[in-house]
Amino acid sequence: MSKSRKQVFDELIANGIGVNVHYIPIYTQPYYLRFGFNKDEFENSEMYYKRAISIPIFSSMSLDQQDKIVNTIKEVLL
Fold first, then answer.
1. pTM score of the predicted model
2. CA distances from 10 to 14, 21, 34, 60, 73 (A)
3. Which of 5, 11, 37, 56 has the most beta carbons within 10 angstroms of its beta carbon?
4. Beta carbons within 10 angstroms of residue 37's beta carbon
5. Residue 71 has what pLDDT?
6. Same domain, 64 and 41
7. Cα dihedral angle (45, 37, 3, 7), rounded to 10 degrees?
8. Which residue, 25, 74, 27, 22, is CA-closest to 52?
9. Looking at residue 46, what DSSP letter applies?
10. Mean per-residue pLDDT for 40-55?
11. Beta-carbon neighbour count of residue 74 at 10 Å?
């Protein structure tokens, strides 16, 4: 059985991995709401949004930090 995004998100946070959701379909942004877009028009955007999680990435990340992130993700997903 696969886990939901929320389950994965919560487990990563519980294991000290600071994840977030940074992709939100543009048609759901306040400026664009007034145009009346329908989510059925953006099936791929919706599908990606429901599954996407942003993981830590920054230029000074050490190899140990990278390994911790990768290994924790593996543990959570398997």
1. 0.78
2. 6, 12, 33, 25, 12
3. 11
4. 14
5. 97
6. no
7. 110
8. 22
9. H
10. 92
11. 9
Please give the average per-residue pLDDT across 33-57, as a whole number: 91
* Whether residue 62 sits in one domain with residue 37: no
Domain, as residue range, for 45: 20-54
Give the mean pLDDT of 9-33: 93
Indicate whether 60 and 49 sit together in one domain.
Answer: no
Number of domains in the chain: 2
The answer to whether 8 and 78 have CB atoms below 8 angstroms apart is no
Going by C-alpha positions, the residue among 29, 23, 31 that lies closest to residue 50 is: 23
Q: Is 16 left (phi over 0), alpha (psi -120 to 50) or beta?
A: left
User: Do 10 and 25 have their domain in common?
Assistant: no
Q: Are residues 24 and 50 in the same domain?
A: yes
Residue with tokens 């991995």: 17
Look over the chain and give the mean of its residue pLDDT values, rounded to a whole number. 93
Band of the pLDDT at 39, cuts 50, 70, 90?
A: confident
